[in-house]
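Subject: Interface between my chains keeps coming out wrong

I've been trying for a while to get a sensible model of this assembly. When I model each chain on its own everything looks fine, but I need the whole thing in one frame so I can look at the contacts. Pasting all components below, labels as-is. Any help appreciated, I'm running out of ideas.
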Amino acid sequence: MTMRFGLSLTLENIAMHIGATLHGDPELRVHNIATLEQARPGSLSFLSHKKYRRHLSSTQATAVILSPEFIPLCPVAALAHPIPYLAYAKVTSLLYPVPNITAGIHSSAVIDPTAHIDATAWVGPLSVIGARVKIAAAVFIGPNCIIDADCDIGNNSRLIARVTLCQHTSIGCRVTIHPGAVIGADGFGFAKDGDQWLRITQIGRTRIGNDVEIGANTTIDRGSLDDTVIADGVILDNLIQIGHNVHVGENTAIVACTGISGSTKIGRNCLLGGNVGIAGHLDIGDGVCLAAGSRVTRSLQGPGSYGGVLPVDVEPLWRRNVARLRHLDDLARRVRQLERLIHNESKSGQAEENNDDATPDI
Amino acid sequence: MTMRFGLSLTLENIAMHIGATLHGDPELRVHNIATLEQARPGSLSFLSHKKYRRHLSSTQATAVILSPEFIPLCPVAALAHPIPYLAYAKVTSLLYPVPNITAGIHSSAVIDPTAHIDATAWVGPLSVIGARVKIAAAVFIGPNCIIDADCDIGNNSRLIARVTLCQHTSIGCRVTIHPGAVIGADGFGFAKDGDQWLRITQIGRTRIGNDVEIGANTTIDRGSLDDTVIADGVILDNLIQIGHNVHVGENTAIVACTGISGSTKIGRNCLLGGNVGIAGHLDIGDGVCLAAGSRVTRSLQGPGSYGGVLPVDVEPLWRRNVARLRHLDDLARRVRQLERLIHNESKSGQAEENNDDATPDI
Amino acid sequence: MTMRFGLSLTLENIAMHIGATLHGDPELRVHNIATLEQARPGSLSFLSHKKYRRHLSSTQATAVILSPEFIPLCPVAALAHPIPYLAYAKVTSLLYPVPNITAGIHSSAVIDPTAHIDATAWVGPLSVIGARVKIAAAVFIGPNCIIDADCDIGNNSRLIARVTLCQHTSIGCRVTIHPGAVIGADGFGFAKDGDQWLRITQIGRTRIGNDVEIGANTTIDRGSLDDTVIADGVILDNLIQIGHNVHVGENTAIVACTGISGSTKIGRNCLLGGNVGIAGHLDIGDGVCLAAGSRVTRSLQGPGSYGGVLPVDVEPLWRRNVARLRHLDDLARRVRQLERLIHNESKSGQAEENNDDATPDI
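Reply #2:
Try treating it as a single job with all components included. I did that and got this:
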């Protein structure tokens, strides 16, 4: 654990920024964020889950963000906010702001003469900018990125490093893309020609909306005829595969290692757990939550929660079936026993009858 | 949806190229491909699935590729072909041809003096070509590729961008490799030395056949002693992991997010759905189809279809078992009920016997 | 299959190095390693699994590493070792040593003036070294790597090629990282702000211990507040996702395509099969083995074996349940039959009673 120091800010400043009510000295300063346990004087901490409440009384933090009802229990300055986790999120970018970008183009970058790069943008070392590319104001292109021909990137977007945008990809504003992501590669489109596979030239594009986040080594294929679309506010974790022609709706969040097959439509405000697999040509409604590891082979209505490892089902039923699975061996034995019992009973029933037949002789 | 324009071609020219029978004016020209719904005058469209048939009568396309039986229903020029989807695949590369490559080596590429690069090949900006590498005629090496020492690449292959070939990798002719793919990295080979892992130097190579396609961020490890082999005509989607010593047979197709463990042999003409996991040292026969999400822990005979999330089984049996899973909770309740019933019956049976015993007294 | 030649070494030299007892001419030389079947004169082979024993009598190898009890069966020189597989691992690095690195910085690399690179280290072509980076003795940085600001790399570590270390990442000594790996990218941390996702600035670092191996295209996120930690001796395969704040204990091995969600702690000496998915905030004990494909949604005590596709369970129970699954359809039919039988019996029982009632009348 290394403690990283951010800006030094007064509690008054912070309270104003995050919309919290301050209980304590407004002139106190903090310069880093830490958990209740690891906070030291100068740290700002937060209490967002009751299971950490036991650490509140002994925290060494200078101030704590918490829900109003915990103010009486807080031994130090308190910043009261109805949703402490959201307040914490807001304060992280206040104390640790993204550095302002230096405008310019690194001398080692390779820029096509037909590209248009805004004077306020930055293109990092060893990046390659192709023909007719348009890069808007305040865009940050980190080292080793490839922006192939006919791409455009909206203002204030940040390609951290080693991002690949294939031809015709369009990126909105305020988008963050992490290293190794490949956006707009050819979709997996082939026709059978006898035993062989004939490649179908992929003509559609990939269009990424505004305020989207794309994780490391995630791949999003270009459309075959229509476009692949990631709508505004979508957040994608690492190592996700999005097939061609997929449409992901506004503010949907997708956790790592998930794969979405071609032409499937995911609604808005969905939440897909990690390692979800969704077959192609399906329609997943708005507000669908999928448990981690879910395998989806049919369209799902939203809103609603579905799971899981087995073919998805509505959640309470799925959970019960999964619970039963842990006792399947026991269940099978019990059925065997019932069969024996019934088999024997009918046998012993016959035996008794014989006995009964015999008894009169005694 | 953005409509990308390709070449402008006459229907006569297209019919000849794709082997279709033209019903309409041979001089008509089209310059893009679109779905029946989105086609406009100048568009070529196609009908390959009956569910889109309802869009045929109202299409604004200039011409439609379709099966001969639909000619009477086609309101515009028709290109009749027995397999419209294959004809569509052929026409995509006709209207949107891969641009001819410019021969040469970009000034920013770093080339080892012992490498041999054919005069008709292209090496893009910021690519690195190692010692003794051999690059054949008309090969396209996009920006930011790494071709490490002792690799060879057959003619007309295309490394789109940011492809990594580790040492001793061999690539056939007409191979396409998408960005982020890593071919020939060390396999995961270690021996336990007490509590610690001792690395086994990987001596085998990776050999990729002709006409292979390798998706974005896919990884194919080099062999430990023998080679890892991807045979001719194999198509691999994105984010696939192929372990060391694996052999994938001709024309097999593997969908995204699939992992194949070391030393497993996959036959020819197999079709592996997305997110399949196959254990090591198995033998999967020719013509095996695996449902998406299948977990394979034993060798499988081909041809045949197998699934799925549970340990794989032949398909009809597997499908029935999975269907039962959705009713497992119900099944368990019914067994409980049977047990109670039988328990009570035998109890009440005894009671009746006692009664019977008793009755004589009356 | 191509036979790669290594150094030419005497059996005496090899026996000494790997701690084997030599039975044969100490002056004999070998120059490559091959399986018993593919070995030729000049090859060293090994017998580590009894299923290959049948190839021993006919091998053309010059010498074979084997367990002492097989010496009488060995037709050629023998190197007896109690654990032949470990001896084989040792001999691979003896015959095929990692080449000594050339010290220096390639002229095409882009180095921040504040970086400190040891004079014995190598920085390859087109690599980017950021501000305040510290690179220790004998470190090898292959082509096209990105070492962002404030990273440090311990001595003798090797970044094969195209490795990305994001800001503040710390790498131990003797670590090997394969192409495409992304270490220290932002974790997937967001707070809901109404319908939208607000990014939480990730302040923690990623710390990689000594003697760690990280596979191609694997991603390890930086911590949110605390650090993400990979302890000494851990080996990670390709395409693995490690979420923020995860802690992986000493000498744990993780096979490809596995995903570990944020804040989960994996113990020491664990073995995670391929395609394992582990939920967040769990505690997996020391010495836990997880079958490939396991889905883990609760903390697990170690040591112990758990599996698998279904929610994990202790192994023997899990294996039995999974075996039952293959017969679930049959089980359901049997229950139906029991129900019918009992239903009919009670009906026919009543009928018989009626008969009984009737018989007296006869």
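Reply #3:
Confirming on my end. Chain A touches chain B through 66 residues (CB under 8 Å).
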